[in-house]
Amino acid sequence: MKKYKNQTLLLLIIALFILPFFLNSYWLDVLTLVLFYVVLTQGLNIVVGYTGLLDLGYAAFFAVGAYTTAILMTTFHWSFWLTLPVAFLFAVIAGVIIGTPTLRLRSDYLAIVTLGFGEIVKILATNLEITGSASGIYGIPRPAIGSYIMSTQKDFYYLILIVAILSIIAVYRLGRSRIGRAWIYIREDEDAAEAMGINRIRLKLLSYASGAVIGSIAGSIFAVKMSAIAPLSFSFLQSVMILLAVVLGGLGSIPGVVIGAVLVIVLPELLRGADDWRHLIFGVSLVAMMIFRPQGIWPSKNGTEDATDMDENGKSNDPNQSMSV
Amino acid sequence: MKPLLKLTDVNSYYGKIHALKNINLEINEGEIVALLGSNGAGKSTTLKTISGLIKPKSGIIEWNAKSIVGVPAHKIVEAGIIHVPEGRRIFGGLTVTENLELGAFTFRKDKKWIKDGIERSFDLFPRLKERAKQLAGTLSGGEQQMVAISRGLMGNPKLLMLDEPSMGLAPIIVQEIMRIIQEINKQGTTILLIEQNAKAALRLANRGYLIEIGNIVMHDTAEVLREDDKIIKAYLGA
């Protein structure tokens, strides 16, 4: 059974590697965007899916990666690859900055603070000179591997495909590690987890930081792929769409979140034929999906359904469990 | 003999509410101590203060003659004080085994301890063995309490603090839980037991404290408390 599953996965990966030769440039672009979303949703999956911390400002980390790479490459003429570790570092710092004041907050309050954080980052990018104000940064050089300069659509497709695969592996491994289990315990019942000896503060910050690093990788690649970035790409809507993909696919479930990313990008494209109706159809199908599959399309094995229903004394365990997204 | 745990003039607040007023309490090694009192008297607050979930405003809490005031909760667990919270608070979406693994969280990479600990839990509560792979949320109330107690034991406590283990359970299950608490104590774990069910608790305990609106109003051996008029009237039912 497991071997069978591995074979399917291998076939899927091979298919993804040869697919660009059969697609026109429009669909290749859509597929590349899907892969960006796969990376972003995996990062957010750590924060929202594993740890249960509702984050409405995740695009901020995407922005941190993109701007770090863009500034270092244009103003300081660094190589793309060297900007990555710096982007990681900034993402970790940003993760800790958002993590520290929100440690004691839960559900709605946490959502409001993260929303504010996302807006602050966007507004900073719009107003600071170093980030090119509202017009953003343009003329970002192409990355090079040795003497080969990556410039075609296919080059970036492969780059983000590899990063997507690596981030899926990383998030999968993290989820099954001791740290991953601790995140899940915090999600399920923070007080009980703490009473059992889990260092709540360190693990929550670690969750934000890990999610931030993955988001920043997507940002760095986004910067060199687009060769121009502007604050508009890192708006609240972007955060919402990433969160939507995670919730739609199934919180904490890796295959679910990948499917969520595909749907959120591909569905509006498929509906282009319906012109003005497409956003309405998209919205209605989202609502329908949440009604019929409230746990997501491919829920994780450890669903977030709470034990409260079965608890005879009717004592609510934790408002965090039933996240109001 | 030096007490294992000693609280001296501990004051705790819930926001503005003065929940614990100059609490003095001692637990010696190997004892079962019962903390009795009605709803809202401060029983759970006492436990939360000991386990570091609430920081006391003033007073001394000594564990093995060392102060643990201000020590973060996860360090207190490592020191050997484990708190089984009220209402069981098990992880309903995780299996019984996964819940038990959490209890051994502080043991990090000691896989053998975790495996042995799970076996020990199943010896203590054979019923859980059949349910090892079941989601804990689907168990009955009594079984969930067994999971909660086993999870606490997985951390190898020197002092196990149980907050109302009999809450919401059928009398026959209460008896079974109480028997097992005694068994755990015989195997060498000191126990601080919070109960509204004073009758059951005093049958088990060596000593008891009675707490009323944040004050310890009485403490004595369990035999004396069982005969005390006030306790009989208020908590045992004449």
Automatic annotation (TrEMBL), chain A:
Listed transmembrane segments: 9-28, 86-103, 156-175, 205-224, 236-267, 279-298
InterPro entries, per the entry: ABC_transp_permease, LivM-like
Top-level division of the source organism's lineage: Bacteria
Membrane topology, from the record: Multi-pass membrane protein
Keywords: Cell membrane, Membrane, Transmembrane, Transmembrane helix
Cellular compartments annotated: Cell membrane
Pfam families: BPD_transp_2
Region (Disordered), start-end ranges: 302-325
Biased composition (Polar residues): 316-325
Name of the protein described by the UniProt record: Branched-chain amino acid ABC transporter permease
Organism of origin: Cytobacillus citreus
TrEMBL record, chain B:
GO molecular function terms listed in the Swiss-Prot or TrEMBL record: ATP binding
Superkingdom classification of source: Bacteria
ABC transporter domain mapped to chain residues: 5-238
Entry annotated with the keyword Signal: no
UniProt keywords, alphabetically: Amino-acid transport, ATP-binding, Nucleotide-binding, Transport
Database matches in InterPro entries: AAA+_ATPase, ABC_branched_ATPase_LivF/BraG, ABC_transporter-like_ATP-bd, ABC_transporter-like_CS, BCAA_Transport_ATP-bd_LivF, P-loop_NTPase
Keyword Transcription regulation: no
One Pfam family matching this protein: ABC_tran
Annotated coiled-coil segments of the chain: none
Gene3D superfamilies in the record: P-loop containing nucleotide triphosphate hydrolases (3.40.50.300)
Family stated for the protein in its record: Belongs to the ABC transporter superfamily.
Entry protein name: ABC transporter ATP-binding protein
